């Protein structure tokens, strides 16, 4: 396996602060790498270093770029250019050939034209427009939007255009910094499939753990100014780091308290959980949280949502309700929220999820129907627009003090510390705070007011992985009711009991879990693909019978995929287990004491184990790759 990127004894300073110190790593061709670490540890700076935007203060970096590097710009100008043409510009080589063809035609250079058309064929130029449109459709653009001008789109949709343009660029190295920002779950699932098929070297920063688990096979954790490599996806990294942290006594004692707390909660939930698929899915998520808790033992965030003093039943009821705006009704529904309800809302962007949350929060009046609030209803509402309502000239401490003027200073400081506002940070005005810091403050304000109904609309935007984990743990233990909109599948899976699908102007209980929802999304895409276009550009819909047959075939294909997926998962588990065993052996071999004469028998045993485990890991990895290839080949045919 050839090296694509080699960092040798690299040090990097930013604003006089050391981010990396004398650290080295090698990234091989075809590896999909996730960069993880706490906010401010240097993930984006490392990416800028690899892209040549920054230079190391010490050491050197060598790269085999192959066909080139693709990376995503963070801004898009308001251009008078069609979206599809903007995306096609991502293939610079294609555009060069097309321009040369235009010039050769004008100059009637027929021999040159023949050569250029041969180059166009090798550059897949004849399918380029179709591929660009497929990228746009995958990222959520409708057929009619493909020819809209770039300036017609909002900032979030322009970021999707940038992503499509980046994916259009032929490359052997792909750099992506938070690519799932501005994407809904539908587009994230599509992007995962695209990146899994990407044959080059991928380096990605993301705070979406489910996304990382799907697309990466190597994790580089930036910690203590060093680059630490872990083989496997993000969950594998958490497990391996957890094992190492457990060896440190102080961390282990703290983790034991967390484990006992989580075990108690798992048992309480198990006692009342039905055999419903969603309940069982959450039970598995709880057990998984228990296993990975040690990996977050040094997290700077530890907080809870305190229990409300009083509760009503029901907390809130909507009867024969019509939601939306007077000139644009969006949803008709009946809903009763009881104490302990934990609802996750699914559905495409624009289906009405945020409209429902805003209506429940009393930001939007009902168009028709009735609303009944419980006597003791106390709502805690979080949405992104609330960050704009924070006072930029006030500190986190002052924000809470305004709510509770009689609260003791130390009580406020302790509470803010759980959200990462320690010491002087709690007294700084928030004008210069990052989006993540403002989001943490907004959540702190919600928690401080002790609500009995939490309404959360995309609470993880701007939050890093550590804060997302802390939020997940806090919501697990929240005793009130909750309605959650999020494209973070781990948060949905770990904290909700009931999923509801907002679709076609109504809200219906979704029978199944998030894996079933991903399948539902694929079926919706297949229904869209069932449309074709006649020569005049008019849509011609296939018959209902044909669409029904397509769904039946898709269901059959998924049934065929299940045993292959199970086989891949089994090999992954075996591989994780053997890699953990090998890591323990190599940790022991790294201790100089083992090479003293008194330990020669133990040394021989360890060396034999290392040789055996390395061979076993190689064998299992080969079997896993073969099984994965077979699964992905069949999956691509679905």
Rg on CA atoms, Å: 27 Å
**What composes the largest sheet?**
6 strands, mixed
Record field, number of beta strands: 20
CATH architecture of the largest domain: 3-Layer(aba) Sandwich
How are strands sequenced across the largest beta sheet?
5-6-7-3-8-9
Determine the number of helices (DSSP H or I, runs of at least 4 residues).
20
How much of the polypeptide forms β-strand, as a percent range?
15-25%
Query: Runs with pLDDT <50, length 5+?
Result: 531-543
- CATH topology of the largest domain: the name is Rossmann fold
Distance between the termini: 31 Å
- Average pLDDT number: 83
Q: Which percent bin holds the helix content? A: 40-55%
> What count of domains describes the coordinates?
5
Strand-pairing-aware structural class: alpha/beta
Q: What is the chains' assembly state?
A: single chain
**Morphology call:** globular
CATH class of the largest domain: Alpha Beta
The CATH homologous superfamily of the largest domain is named P-loop containing nucleotide triphosphate hydrolases
3D architecture notes:
- The protein is an alpha/beta fold and 638 residues long.
- It folds into 5 domains: 1-68 and 171-247, P-loop containing nucleotide triphosphate hydrolases (Rossmann fold, 3-Layer(aba) Sandwich), CATH 3.40.50; 82-160, no CATH class; 248-296; 316-521, P-loop containing nucleotide triphosphate hydrolases (Rossmann fold, 3-Layer(aba) Sandwich); 560-636.
- Helices cover 47% and strands 19% of the residues.
- It is built from 20 helices and 20 strands.
- Strands 5-6-7-3-8-9 form a 6-stranded mixed beta sheet. Strands 14-15-16-12-17-18 form a 6-stranded mixed beta sheet, sandwiched between helices.
- Strand 19 and strand 20 (539-541) form a beta hairpin.
- Helix 11 (277-292) packs across helix 17 (489-495) and helix 16 (465-476) packs parallel to helix 17 (489-495).
- The longest helix has 46 residues, at 544-589.
- Mean pLDDT is 83; it is low at 531-543.
């Amino acid at each position: 396996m050839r090296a694509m990127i080699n960092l040798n004894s690299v040090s990097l300073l930013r604003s006089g602060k050391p981010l990396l110190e004398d650290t080295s790593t090698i990234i091989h061709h075809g590896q999909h790498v996730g960069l993880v670490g706490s906010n401010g540890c240097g993930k984006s700076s490392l990416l800028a270093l690899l892209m040549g935007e920054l230079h190391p203060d010490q050491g050197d970096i060598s790269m085999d770029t192959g066909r080139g590097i693709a990376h995503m710009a963070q801004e898009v100008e308001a251009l008078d250019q069609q979206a599809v043409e903007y995306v096609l510009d991502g293939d610079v080589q294609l555009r060069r050939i097309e321009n040369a063809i235009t010039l050769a035609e004008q100059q009637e250079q027929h021999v040159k034209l023949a050569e250029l058309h041969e180059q166009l064929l090798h550059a897949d130029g004849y399918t380029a427009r179709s591929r660009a449109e497929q990228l746009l459709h995958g990222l959520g653009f409708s057929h009619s939007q493909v020819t809209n001008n770039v300036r017609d789109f909002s900032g979030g949709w322009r970021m999707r255009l940038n992503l499509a343009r980046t994916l259009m660029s032929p490359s052997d190295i792909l750099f992506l910094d938070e690519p799932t920002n501005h994407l809904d779950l539908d587009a994230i699932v599509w992007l995962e499939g695209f990146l899994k098929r990407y044959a080059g070297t991928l380096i990605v920063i993301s705070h979406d753990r489910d996304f990382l688990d799907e697309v990466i096979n190597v994790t580089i954790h930036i910690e203590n100014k060093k680059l630490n490599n872990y083989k496997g996806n993000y969950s594998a990294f958490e497990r391996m780091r957890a094992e190492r942290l457990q060896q440190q006594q102080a961390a282990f004692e703290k983790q034991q308290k967390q484990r006992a707390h989580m075990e108690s909660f798992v048992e309480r939930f198990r006692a009342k959980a039905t055999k419903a698929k969603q309940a069982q899915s959450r039970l598995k998520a709880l057990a998984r949280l228990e296993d990975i808790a040690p990996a977050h033992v040094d997290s700077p965030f530890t907080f809870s949502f305190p229990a409300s003093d009083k509760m009503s039943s029901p907390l809130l009821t909507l009867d024969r309700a019509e939601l939306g705006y007077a000139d644009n009704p969006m949803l008709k529904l009946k809903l009763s929220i009881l104490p302990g309800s934990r609802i996750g809302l699914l559905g495409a962007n624009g289906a009405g999820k945020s409209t429902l949350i805003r209506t429940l929060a009393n930001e939007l009046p009902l168009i028709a129907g009735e609303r009944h609030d419980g006597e003791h209803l106390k709502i805690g509402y979080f949405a992104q627009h609330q960050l704009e309502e924070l006072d930029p000239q006030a500190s986190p401490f002052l924000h809470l003090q305004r709510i509770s003027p009689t609260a003791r200073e130390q009580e406020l400081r302790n509470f803010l510390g759980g959200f990462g506002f320690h010491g002087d940070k709690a007294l700084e005005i928030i004008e210069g705070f990052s989006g993540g810091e403002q989001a943490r403050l907004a959540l702190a304000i919600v928690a401080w007011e002790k609500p009995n109904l939490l309404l959360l609309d995309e609470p993880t935007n701007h939050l890093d992985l550590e804060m997302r984990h802390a939020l997940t743990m806090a919501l697990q233990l929240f005793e009130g009711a909750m309605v959650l909109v999020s494209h973070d599948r781990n948060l949905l899976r770990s904290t909700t009991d009931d999923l509801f699908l907002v679709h076609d102007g109504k809200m219906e209980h979704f029978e199944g879990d998030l894996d079933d929802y991903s399948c539902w999304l694929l079926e919706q895409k297949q229904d869209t693909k069932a449309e074709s276009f006649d020569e005049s550009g008019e849509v011609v819909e296939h018959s209902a019978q044909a669409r029904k047959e397509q769904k039946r075939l898709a269901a059959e294909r998924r049934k065929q995929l299940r045993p292959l997926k199970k086989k891949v998962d089994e090999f992954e588990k075996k591989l994780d287990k053997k890699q953990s065993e090998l890591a323990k052996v190599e940790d022991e071999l790294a201790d100089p004491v083992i090479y003293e004469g008194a330990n020669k028998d133990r040394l021989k045993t360890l060396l034999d184990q290392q040789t055996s485990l390395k061979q076993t890991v190689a064998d299992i990895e080969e079997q896993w790759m073969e099984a994965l290839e077979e699964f992905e080949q069949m999956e691509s045919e679905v």
